[in-house]
Every structure is written in structure tokens, then in C-alpha cells.
Design a protein that fits this description.
By secondary structure, the protein is α/β, with parallel strands linked by helices. Helices cover 37% and strands 20% of the residues. The chain has a domain of 97 residues: Spore Coat Polysaccharide Biosynthesis Protein SpsA, Chain A (Alpha-Beta Complex). It has nine helices and nine strands. Helix 1 runs parallel beside helix 2. The longest helix is centred in the last third of the chain and has 19 residues.
């Protein structure tokens, strides 16, 4: 069992998957107790052949990389496949078009070994253009509070760019996440869940490069239901609060109800009043 697994879900990423995989493979220069898993979700382009070409060129990495070709599943199931098929103390998802800097994993393991109260380790945020050019785009969060309730509530109020979803995290802290939750903004909910278990540490010594596409249109994604907005926020609120109910179970009833009430108020303040459909 390796200490760390990097899981790379892939679908039609033939322009970018080689760079993504190489950024993961270069972690082996400083840290070798690592496996890299790629789950290709029945791509219709040359993604698989691009992965195979990298492994042919970098033969020293072959024993550390596993490529699985799926028969076709939802993107959600493909993400979870990588988590379920592996067994490591630390895990991270790396998008099939994103990259991490050299030494990222070594720094993350060192920090999390020394700081047991850290639940998520992530490098500084950088943007990556379609053409592969890095650009600075500062995204800084303070989820360093000792109280897990405060971290959770702060994440509701302040999370915007959810690149920290791709943090290195302790696998055990996501084992009890309710996968029946089906709502827009699920990455937001999962980050809050992980923050309940530990603090976020953003390192200035390494970076996570998130690819931004020129055609990336948040309004279009809202219309597709991928983000909470004025007409689907009830589903988002319901999923958020359902997950929180599970977390507050060990608390006294009145305290748990107070936390749920505070979370509910923050959701409404941040994302607007619940949208009610008039079926009459």
C-alpha cells in the first residue's frame, strides 16, 4: 500500500493529459512512496494513446502508474472509482488538464506528517491557459481555525474558487461522506466536509495549476445546473445541510440544531432565498 495516491479522472483530454501525467510523474524525483492512477472514462479521442506514449518514454515510472480503461460511467462515478480502487493514507484528485509543480507531493507529505491538525494540503493557485502558459491568480483562504464548526461555516461564507478540492487529504476523512448527495456545487460541500476534519494549509513553496479555457462560461455552467443559482439552490441547500446533519450527530441536540441554523442562514445570505416552484 503506498503512502500517497494521485487519482486522475480522464475524458477526452488528449491535448493535456500528457502534461498532467508528467507533472505527477515528476513527483517521484523527490518522493517514491506514490502511485498514480488514471481512469479513462471511454474517451473518444487519443487520451489513452497519449498516456501510453508517456509511459513508453518514461519507463522508470511504469511501476508507479496504473491506467484503467472504463466502459463508460458518469463523471461522478469515475472520480469515486479512483478513490475506491486504491488504498493509501493520503489521496488527491488531479484534473486531467491540470498540473502540479515539482516537489508538490513531498512537501505535502512532510507537512501533513508534522501537522496532524492539517486536513488538506494545497499549493498556491496558478492559472494555466489553453496554450499551457502559467499566469498568477491569487486565491487565498483562511481555514486555519481550531474549531471545526468555525472552519465549516467559514467555508460556506467564503469558498469561491474551489481549486482546493484538489488538495492532498487524509483518506479516512472522506470515508464517511454521503455519496447519495446529488446537487450542484458538490465540490463545495466536499471541501466543507473535509474542513470539519482538519485545517487547510496553502503552501507558497509549490503550486497547483488549474487550466482555464477561453470558452469557460460560468453563466453557461449555471444553466447546465453545475453551480447553485436562483432556481436550483434548494437542492444545494438540502445536500449541504444533509451532510452537516451527519457531522453534528456527536454534538448535543440543541448545539447541533444551532449549528444547522447558523449554516442555513449563511447559505441563504450567500446564495439567496430558497427558490420555490409554483406548481399551482
Amino acid at each position: 500500500m503506498p503512502k500517497v495516491v494521485i487519482g486522475i479522472p480522464c475524458f477526452n483530454e488528449d491535448q493535456y493529459i500528457a502534461g498532467t501525467l508528467l507533472s505527477a510523474i515528476q513527483q517521484l524525483d523527490e518522493y517514491t512512496d506514490l502511485e498514480i492512477w488514471i481512469s479513462d472514462n471511454k474517451s473518444t479521442d487519443n487520451s489513452v494513446s497519449k498516456v501510453e506514449a508517456v509511459l513508453e518514454a518514461v519507463k522508470s515510472a511504469v511501476n508507479h502508474v496504473t491506467l484503467v480503461e472504463q466502459e463508460g460511467m458518469s463523471a461522478f462515478d469515475n472520480f469515486w472509482y479512483l478513490f475506491d480502487a486504491t488504498d493509501s493514507e493520503l489521496f488527491m484528485w488531479l484534473g486531467g488538464h491540470d498540473q502540479i509543480s515539482k516537489g508538490y507531493i513531498q512537501r505535502g507529505v512532510t507537512h501533513m506528517t508534522q501537522s496532524s491538525d492539517t486536513g488538506l494540503f494545497c499549493g498556491a493557485h496558478k492559472g494555466l491557459t489553453v496554450d499551457g502558459n502559467l499566469f498568477d491568480q491569487e486565491v487565498v483562504y483562511d481555514f486555519s481555525q481550531d474549531n471545526p464548526v468555525e472552519r465549516y461555516l467559514q467555508s460556506i461564507a467564503n469558498l469561491n474558487n474551489c481549486y482546493v478540492f484538489h488538495s492532498l487529504f487524509r483518506r479516512k476523512n472522506l470515508m464517511n461522506f454521503d455519496r447519495t448527495l446529488d446537487a450542484p456545487g458538490l465540490d463545495h460541500i466536499m471541501i466543507s466536509h473535509l474542513l470539519w476534519a482538519g485545517k487547510l494549509y496553502q503552501s507558497a513553496e509549490c503550486f497547483f495549476a488549474r487550466r482555464y479555457f477561453s470558452k469557460e462560461d460560468r453563466a453557461a455552467k449555471v444553466a447546465m445546473g453545475r453551480y447553485p443559482h436562483g432556481k436550483n439552490n434548494v437542492e444545494f441547500y438540502e445536500a449541504y445541510l444533509q451532510g452537516l446533519r451527519q457531522l453534528v450527530q456527536p454534538l448535543p441536540d440543541l448545539v447541533g440544531e444551532a449549528v444547522l441554523s447558523q449554516a442555513s442562514g449563511l447559505l441563504v445570505k450567500r446564495f439567496g432565498l430558497p427558490f420555490l416552484v409554483n406548481n399551482g
